[in-house]
Specification:
The protein is an alpha/beta fold and about 200 residues long. About 45% of the residues lie in helices and about 20% in strands. It has a six-stranded parallel beta sheet with strand order 5-4-3-2-1-9. A three-stranded parallel beta sheet has the order 6-7-8.
Length: about 200
């Protein structure tokens, strides 16, 4: 596990295997650090396989909405290097760490955040970020171990991304304001470039 900054993660919820590579290439080209294919997308493991096969070995490709240790193993077999969950489940975090993957468990309270860290996570997905809020994230940062990555997800868009960055977020997961099923890759790429400009 590494505590490097996470940067921006494109959440490609609903992407199909036929579109996955072109959309992923567009957001990577724009400067996003990672893409995530939620497991409630159509044939998500095939999309992960295709994105992984199309890019360099070190490219960060994640599985999202990962709910069980079996999900972790299936995602790992498909080539995922990030495991992202909407909740904190110690056995999911532990299996992710055991397999040498990056763990991003979702937490909405400091109690959940500490439980995730005790299970082996090094970064926390603040979810939904609209519930935790920027002031909440600052408060968490004051008590969590130094170096803990804090990644807001859920409601992050071009209007508030700069505020999260200034408040100390180590990255952000961006979903529907970046990609909706059927969006053309060049349109998604333009949105991604705009978001990267705001972040930087």
């Amino acid at each position: 596990m590494t505590s490097r900054p996470t940067g921006l993660v494109a959440i490609l919820r609903g992407v199909s295997p036929a579109d996955a590579v072109a959309v992923a290439e567009a957001v990577f080209a724009a400067g996003f650090d990672a893409v995530e294919v939620p497991l409630n997308s159509p044939d998500p493991l095939e999309s992960i396989r295709r994105i992984r096969a199309a890019g360099p070995a070190g490219r960060r490709v994640g599985a999202g909405t990962v709910l069980t240790p079996d999900d972790v193993r299936r995602a790992a077999d498909a080539g995922a290097s990030l495991i992202v969950s909407p909740n904190t489940r110690a056995d999911v975090v532990a299996e992710t760490v055991r397999l040498g993957l990056e763990s991003y468990p979702g937490a909405a309270t400091p109690t959940e955040a500490f439980a995730a860290l005790e299970a082996g996570a090094r970064a926390i997905k603040l979810f939904p970020s609209t519930a935790v809020g920027i002031d909440g994230m600052r408060a968490w940062a004051s008590v969590l171990p130094p170096g803990t990555g804090l990644v807001p997800v859920g409601g992050v868009d071009a209007a508030n991304l700069a505020d999260w960055a200034r408040a100390g977020a180590s990255g952000a997961g961006i979903g529907t304001s970046l990609y909706r099923p059927g969006d053309a890759p060049d349109v998604v790429g333009a949105r991604a470039a705009h978001l990267v400009g705001i972040w930087r």
